[in-house]
Amino acid sequence: MQSIVILGAGHAGFQCAAALRQQGFTGGVSLVSDEGRLPYQRPPLSKGYLLGQTSAADLAFRAESFFREQRLTLVRGLAESIDRQAHRVTLQNGESLPYDHLVIAIGSRPRRLPVTAARRRR
Ligand SMILES: Cc1cc2nc3c(=O)[nH]c(=O)nc-3n(C[C@H](O)[C@H](O)[C@H](O)COP(=O)(O)OP(=O)(O)OC[C@H]3O[C@@H](n4cnc5c(N)ncnc54)[C@H](O)[C@@H]3O)c2cc1C
User: Fold this and answer.
1) Is pLDDT at 57 greater than 60 in this prediction?
2) 8-state DSSP, 87
3) pLDDT band at residue 72, thresholds of 50, 70 and 90?
């Protein structure tokens, strides 16, 4: 049985996991995230959530039961290194996860311009 480890449980990571099951993948699927909560939507954070119209619970993509029923394992941690030869990811807490396929969905952040004016705004 093949296993897939997905690093990052944001929109990309969560959707990848859900799509694997929708498409009939029956192997192990682990979603690694250091956020300590169910995968959630970010856009409402700066909209309805700030206005008090959306609760934190409403932000979750799916309830906990979805992950249980779909056999999507939520792993708490931050990937620190990937050993591509051994097909293993090591987390900051020392846990080591074997994988057949690895999905890297850890998001991105804007690159800061290396100019003085940009540095002053930090
Ligand atoms: C406040 C806010 C409002 C937004 N509003 C809009 C909007 O209105 N419209 C729109 O189109 N987009 C909006 N966005 C952007 C949109 O939410 C992002 O494009 C989207 O979240 C990107 O998803 P992602 O899964 O690629 O990355 P992310 O959401 O960044 O998720 C990456 C995940 O990977 C985890 N991670 C990082 N490093 C590691 C590691 N080493 N090991 C394990 N996990 C790791 C992170 O903790 C995070 O959980 C908004 C974003 C924010 C924050």
Assistant:
1) yes
2) T
3) very high
Structural domain for 66, as ranges: 3-120
* CB of residue 39 inside a 6 A radius of ligand 1: no
What is the distance between the alpha carbons of residues 61 and 42, in angstroms, rounded to a whole number? 10
pTM of the model: 0.93
Residue 122: per-residue pLDDT? 53
**The two three-digit tokens of residue 111, written as one number:** 């690159």
| Distance from residue 1's CA to the centre of ligand 1 (Å) | 30
Question: Which ligand 1 atom is nearest residue 15's CA?
Answer: 25
Interatomic CA distance for residues 99 and 11, integer angstroms: 21
List the CATH number of the domain containing 21.
3.50.50.60
Ligand 1 contacts CB of residue 43 (under 6 A): yes
Question: What is the domain count for the chain?
Answer: 1
Residue 121: the pLDDT is 56
46 lines ligand 1 (CB under 6 A): yes
Place of tokens 């991105």: 108
